[in-house]
Write a structure and sequence with these properties.
Distance between the termini: 27 Å
Radius of gyration: 17 Å
CATH architecture: 2-Layer Sandwich
CATH topology: Nucleotidyltransferase, domain 5
Shape: globular
Oligomer: single chain
Helix content: 25-40%
CATH class: Alpha Beta
Structural class: alpha/beta
Number of helices: 7
Largest sheet: 7 strands, mixed
Strand content: 15-25%
C-alpha cells in the first residue's frame, strides 16, 4: 500500500491520492465569495501556467493578507482546441490588465513552452517583476505541498470562482520519492491549470515574504528583478 493510501484508508486521514489531492470540504471551508484584492494593493504575486492548444492558460493573483493568503478571481483562457494556438496577445492582455490594477506586482511563470518570450515582454513593457518557476518535479512537489498545507490549515482564502474550484478539485497527486505534485487524473479529460498556477504563486509568495536568511537558495537576482529558478 502506498503512503497516501495507508494514511487515508487505514488511518482515516485525508491526504493526497489518486482521486484528488485536495479535500473538497477543506477547499470549501476556505471560500469567501466577496474576496477581491483591492486595486493598487502591494505585494501581489501572479502565478501563470501556460497552455496554448489544448490546456488552458491560468493566471492567478494572490497576496499575503493580515492572517491568510488572499486569492483574487483568476483569468483562465481557453484556446480554440481545434489545433490552433491561443493568441499570445490575449495572454499578454490579461497580464497587462493585472499590472494596471496592481503596479509593481510579480509574475511567476515557467520559462519553458513559450514562457521565456512572455517573460521578456512582461519585463520590457510592464511595471512588474518577473520570476521564473520551473515545473520540474522538485519545485512543483514543493509548490503543491505548500498549497495543500495552506488549504488544510485554513491559511488561504479564495473567491469561490467556479472555474478555479474545478481545477483545484480535479488535481490528483503523483508521488516522487517522499514528495508529491499535482497531476491530471488518469483517464479523465479534466483541467488542473489553475491549481498549478496557484501553487506556483504560493511558493513564490512564501519565498518573497521570508527574511533573507529564511529564503530558499534558489531565490536570486537584482533587487528589482528576482528570478526563482526551481530547485531540481
Amino acid at each position: 500500500m502506498t503512503p497516501w493510501a495507508w494514511e487515508r484508508f487505514a488511518c482515516g486521514l485525508w491526504t493526497a491520492g489518486e482521486e484528488g489531492a485536495v479535500s473538497a470540504r477543506e477547499w470549501a471551508a476556505c471560500a469567501d465569495a466577496e474576496l477581491a484584492i483591492p486595486e493598487g494593493a502591494n505585494g501581489v504575486v501572479v502565478g501563470v501556467n501556460l497552455g496554448w492548444k489544448w490546456d488552458t492558460t491560468a493566471i492567478v493573483p494572490i497576496r499575503q493578507g493580515e492572517d491568510v493568503i488572499e486569492v483574487h478571481p483568476p483569468a483562465i483562457l481557453i484556446p480554440p482546441q481545434d489545433g490552433r494556438s491561443l493568441d499570445a496577445n490575449e495572454v499578454f492582455g490579461a497580464c497587462e490588465a493585472m499590472a494596471e490594477r496592481w503596479p509593481g506586482l510579480t509574475f511567476a511563470l515557467d520559462p519553458e513552452a513559450g514562457g521565456e518570450q512572455l517573460a521578456q515582454r512582461l519585463d520590457a513593457e510592464l511595471d512588474c517583476t518577473v520570476m521564473t518557476h520551473s515545473q520540474k518535479a522538485g519545485p512543483m512537489c514543493d509548490a503543491s505541498e505548500q498549497l495543500a498545507t495552506a488549504i488544510r490549515e485554513g491559511s488561504i482564502r479564495h473567491p469561490n470562482d467556479a472555474e478555479l474550484n474545478r481545477h483545484v478539485l480535479a488535481a490528483a497527486a503523483r508521488f516522487y520519492g517522499v514528495g508529491w505534485r499535482f497531476v491530471k487524473p488518469k483517464n479523465k479529460n479534466l483541467r488542473i491549470d489553475g491549481a498549478v498556477a496557484l501553487a506556483m504563486a504560493v511558493r513564490v509568495l512564501n519565498s518573497t515574504e521570508a527574511t533573507p536568511k529564511e529564503r530558499s537558495d534558489d531565490v536570486r537576482g537584482p533587487s528589482n528583478k528576482i528570478h526563482l529558478m526551481g530547485m531540481s
